[in-house]
Amino acid sequence: MASIQILIGSVYGGAEQLAEIAAEQLRALGHEVTLNTYARPQDLSRDAKEILLLCHSNTGSGELPDNIQPIYLHLTRDYPRISGKRYGVINLGDSSYSTFNEAGRMLDAAFADLGAVRIGEPLVLDACSGDSPETLARDWAKEWATLI
């Protein structure tokens, strides 16, 4: 089974809770999962075979939370060698803002620009949808795991 590191970007804890739910689902499927709330640039390359799962919220202005900003800045300023690195994206947002999902698109694009390979489609959760983010995250993680 795969080794997966979940990089968490959260302001109020919502993304952290969903990362824990996704981790629980992935572990139940036999994967080794670690949660990383304060990722550092070197965490991107600690294991060449490790898959990264980005789980983060957006601020009201569409920016990434402070605790995942160092990863984004490292990607866009230092251009680490992550070509071929596999990753997935879970993005929490609120469609009542004009910048809905902007942080998710920025981080996804930064990985793709460096040759990383996204697994499946991102899960974009909208706080205005009325859907259960926990259920959506659990279902998405189960489906995502089949693509690994």
What can you tell me about this protein's structure?
By secondary structure, the chain is an alpha/beta fold. The chain has helices at 14-28, 69-77, 102-113, 133-145, and strands spanning 3-9, 32-36, 51-57, 86-93, 117-118, 123-126. Strands 1, 2, 3, 4, 5 and 6 form a 6-stranded parallel sheet that branches. Helix 1 crosses helix 4.
Please outline what is shown here.
The protein is 33% helix and 22% strand. It is of the alpha/beta class and 148 residues long. The protein has helices at residues 14-28, 69-77, 102-113, 133-145, and strands at residues 3-9, 32-36, 51-57, 86-93, 117-118, 123-126.
Search tags:
single chain; 4 helices; 148 residues; alpha/beta
Q: Secondary-structure blueprint of this entry?
A:
Layout: E1 3-9, H1 14-28, E2 32-36, E3 51-57, H2 69-77, E4 86-93, H3 102-113, E5 117-118, E6 123-126, H4 133-145
Parallel strand pairs: 1-2, 1-3, 3-4, 4-5, 4-6
Query: What's the overall average pLDDT, rounded?
Result: 94
- Say how many strands there are: 6
User: Which structural category fits the helices and strands?
Assistant: alpha/beta
Poorly predicted spans: none
| Beginning-to-end CA distance, first to last residue | 9 Å
Order of helices and strands: EHEEHEHEEH
Strand content: 15-25%
| Quaternary structure type | single chain
Shape: globular
Largest sheet report: 6 strands, parallel
Radius of gyration: 14 Å
Helix content: 25-40%
